[in-house]
Design brief:
Blueprint (H helix, E strand, L loop, with lengths): L1 H15 L10 E5 L2 E5 L8 E4 L4 E5 L6 E7 L4 H4 L2 E5 L9 E7 L10 E14 L3 E12 L7 E10 L4
Antiparallel strand pairs: 1-2, 1-10, 3-4, 4-5, 5-7, 6-8, 7-8, 8-9, 9-10
């Protein structure tokens, strides 16, 4: 009887252990090997602006040192609702898409805390006034840095209707 009780307690404890995965994240950003999960967007500080010449989406989360900033100049994406971009090639004739992040915890000058996505692929699976579903995988660096690029990747699946 003691063995059965011990086995039951062990199974219960293992079943209750929290998972290391973050399935509740609406956005995940990995910059230079450090991963940041967004669970709840702070709509009082975030911006969603579908202008006539540019779409600007800035997303912040309370307590998260990283913010997400997307500028889409390809207004045709609203008709298609999706698009694939390869940087820097797609921005050679003028800005098409610009993605950057601000990391308050990054050391150095404030300008270098803003990290630009300089090279790689951005796939927008869905962009509408209601939703942003995208992935990105590439490299970037601080705005004033000219040295080596570091890895940047992530995804978002955000309901843009402010809660």
């Amino acid at each position: 009887m003691k063995t059965i009780l011990t086995l039951f307690i062990a199974i219960t404890l293992l079943s209750c252990k929290e998972s290391n995965t973050n399935s509740a994240s609406v956005m995940t950003i990995e910059i230079d090997g450090v991963t940041h999960h967004f669970k709840t967007i702070d709509w009082s500080r975030s911006t969603v602006d579908f202008g006539t010449e540019v779409i600007h989406i800035e997303l912040l989360e309370e307590g998260n040192p990283v913010s997400f900033n997307l500028h889409v100049h390809d207004m045709g994406i609203l008709e298609k609702s999706s698009g694939d971009y390869t940087l820097p090639d797609d921005n050679k004739t003028g800005p098409t898409i610009y993605l950057d992040f601000f990391n308050k915890e990054r050391e150095g000058r404030k300008a270098n805390r803003r990290i630009g996505f300089a090279k790689g692929d951005i796939e927008i699976k869905q962009l509408s006034k209601d939703k942003l579903d995208m992935t990105f995988n590439g490299e970037g660096n601080g705005m004033m840095e000219t040295g080596d690029l570091f890895s940047i990747k992530g995804h978002s699946n955000v309901d843009l209707q402010k809660q």
